Amino acid sequence: DVERRCGRTLMALREHLLKAIWHAFTALDVDQRGKVSKSQLKVLSHNLCTVMRIPHDPVALEEHFKDDDEGPVSNQGYMPYLNRFILDKVSDNFDRQDFNRMCWTLSSRKNLNLSRLIISNEDAFKTWCIFNFLSEDQYPLVIITEEIEYFLRKLTEAMGGSWVEERFEDYKLLLSSRQQSLSAWELIALVGSGHFSKGLDKQALSMGINEVYLELILDVLKQGYMMKKGHRRKNWNERWFVLRPDSMSYYVSEDLAEWKGDIFLDESSIVEPLQDKEGKKCLFIIRSSQKSFEISVSDKKKKQEWIQAIQTCLNRLRDGRPAPHHEAQQKRRQIRAKQQAEQEELELRMRELQVANEAKQQELEKMRQALEEAAADAAEEEQRRLQTQTELQDRYRTDLERERLVRQQIEEQVAQKSTELEQYLQRVRELEDMYRRLEEALEEERHARQDEEAVRRLQARLLEEEATKRAELEQIHLRQQHAISKTEAEKEQLEKERLAKENALQAAMEQLEHLEKERQGALEQYQTVMKKLETATNNTKSWKHKVAEHEGLLRLIGPGDKGQALITNWGPAAFSDMELSHREKQWQKMKTEKSQAQ
């Protein structure tokens, strides 16, 4: 665990050094071509070695680039030398502030203009250090919107002001229209413009920057005046204490000019309260592996705050956890990485859905073509049926014409049957009308069946879409339930995403209701078509019955038979025996109905 912790510390130190060196290298690139001359790199390398207490080998740079010409060296070309001869030899035994100030001096000469800012050069330097801490581990260095908000919130809190969410949202919209991040000098200009410190003086802004700088850069977790009992004289002296993750330093005053000592904290250290004694109140003791320190504060609230802060440091040391702001930064980066992975997964899913949708569209297109072919076949079949019907009608007309000729011959032979022929022709006309109405009823029945098939297909498609939407709705609901089951810390970050999913769920519900309404309309249309079909079927049966009845009464009149002719009111041989019997039955039936009606 110790080796792993040391490895993480060295990696974090290496990343911090690379960011500051990148600023210095970029400042030396006057022409902005991404290259710096060897003479400037020699001076930079010498200064880096001096500040970081590394033995400098002036010949190493020349040996490293001996195959190159005298031209400038790019950043990629300088990195192997920097890693091998400087960063691989560095240890955490130098003053990081001296290192930062050296890189700041090189970069600020080219990029910083304080004439329009309300902050000092020292405040700009501290803001630059904060930028290096919060910026992404990608080059060129930038700070994203989330980290800008984090820094401005802490700065506003340190100044004692109130955070105005609407003001930052407006600035974020302005920032999004141009880009999604800021460079170090843009961040300094933003802080120095006083846009987010309106109503506060320059001193409050400077003190706020310093407080954030102490917490994020110098790892100062708490500081303040307390009384410490001496180890030799046993007297009580007031000291300015500064608490860091693994130590507690104390000075004569808060300007940190005169250092008096350190209290080193480790896993075995203990902090606990003490009873009041020797006229001192609000006591507590820090027991380290080497010494014990008795400390007194002014009131119980400060005592509890200090004990809790020190105990938090000890717990973090035992758990191997970094400082709170380092841990918070790691969590924010992990959340962003997770959100990016989820976004990439969502985009991949959208692409898969798009491919599936395209395949579905192709399948629907094939179905449409098949339906068109089926419709063409049905139209061809209908054409053949009409042609057959026309042929039957022509044949029927031919038969009628032949029958008319026969009737004429019969009229020439038997003049007495002229009235019968007129009645016969009347029956023929009624029969033709019945056939025409029968054809119309059959046509209505065919259209009704086509409408029924169309409604069935529409209802099937609507049911399929409804099932698809219900499945999508269940998937969205499951994802929403999964998102809700996450930790409370993730809920705050994913609130916007949950709202977007709820909006998508609401839109899916509305679309599902719309599909339900369409399905109800299709069902009503289907019922209407079924009623039409039933009516057309009944009409067809009625007309078929009437035609059958008339066909039973209709017969062709042939030449008179040789049997005994009957004499009626219409003359001799006007009816056969069967017709006479049928007419007699009808006359008796009409007489009976008439008498019943009376």
The SSE string, one letter per element, is HEHHEHHHEHHEHHEEEEEEEHHHHHEEH
Q: How many H/I helical runs? A: 16
- Tell me the CATH superfamily of the domain at 222-321: Pleckstrin-homology domain (PH domain)/Phosphotyrosine-binding domain (PTB)
Radius of gyration: 51 Å
Q: Describe the largest sheet.
A: 7 strands, antiparallel
Second CATH tier, the architecture of the domain at 222-321: Roll
Share of residues in helices:
55-70%
Mean pLDDT: 82
Keywords: Cell membrane, Cell projection, Coiled coil, Cytoplasm, DNA-binding, Membrane, Nucleus, Phosphoprotein
Subunit structure: The SWAP complex consists of NPM1, NCL, PARP1 and SWAP70.
Region (Disordered): 317-341
InterPro entries: EF-hand-dom_pair (IPR011992), EF-hand_SWAP70_N (IPR057836), PH-like_dom_sf (IPR011993), PH_domain (IPR001849), PH_SWAP70 (IPR057837)
